[in-house]
Amino acid sequence: MTHQEIAKLVTPAAWNGAASITKHTQDREEAVAHALRTIISKFDQWDGRPIEAWANRIARNKAIDLKKGRKREADYEPTEFMHVAEEQPDSADHSKLHAAIDSLNPRKRELTILHYYKGMEMQTIAESLNLNLSTVKVTVMRARQDIRKYLEQNR
After folding, report:
1. Is 92 found in the same domain as 29?
2. How many CB atoms lie within 10 A of CB 14?
3. Where in the sequence is the domain holding 141, given as residue range(s)?
4. Last residue of a domain, one of 22, 39, 73
5. CA atoms of 114 and 151, how far apart (whole Å)
6. What residues contact residue 131 under an 8 Å CB cut-off, 6+ apart?
7. What distance in Å separates the CA atoms of residue 11 and residue 36, rounded to the nearest whole number?
8. If 0-12 CB within 10 Å is exposed, 13-18 middle and 19+ buried, where does residue 94 land?
């Protein structure tokens, strides 16, 4: 069975599974995309049970994971440090932020840039760099703390 055939077969069930957890279309789409990747990568391990039920369960779990991640991330906004630019609207503001980012260790800097500047989801970063999702989240959180501390010390 090709990837397209698998996707066509399981997408409706995955959509329903994700819809039972989240009401936001974008979150559903993201959960279904994660579910399809999982289903396709583990298709050879499928045990023969109804594939729709399997897809539904995987999508529900992915939606739950996304929802939990959103709650943990809800304590900050990607524009959290924009207040510096609003207080002092000259070009030096951006240089302070860039200097703060440059002061981070290489791992923190890399994850911060991927998440905030490249717009990558933390799950995607974790998968692409072969890291645990919790490692990515903690590192980005600590990087934010370091940036905040740097900006406060260099006002």
Report:
1. no
2. 30
3. 80-153
4. 73
5. 20
6. 125
7. 8
8. exposed
In angstroms, the CA 138 to CA 92 distance is 29
Structural domain count of the chain? 2
Q: How far apart are CA 74 and CA 58, in angstroms?
A: 24
Instruction: Give the distance from CA 95 to its chain's centroid.
Output: 27
Statement to judge: residues 49 and 84 lie in one domain: no
The answer on 52 and 92 residing in a single domain is: no
First to last CA, the chain: 60
Per-residue pLDDT tens listing for the chain (155 residues)? 788 888 888 888 888 878 777 777 888 888 888 888 888 888 888 777 788 888 888 888 888 887 776 654 433 444 444 444 444 444 455 678 888 888 888 888 888 888 887 788 888 888 877 889 999 999 999 999 999 999 889 87
The token duo for 84 is 């510096």
Integer Cα distance of 22 and 66 in angstroms: 9
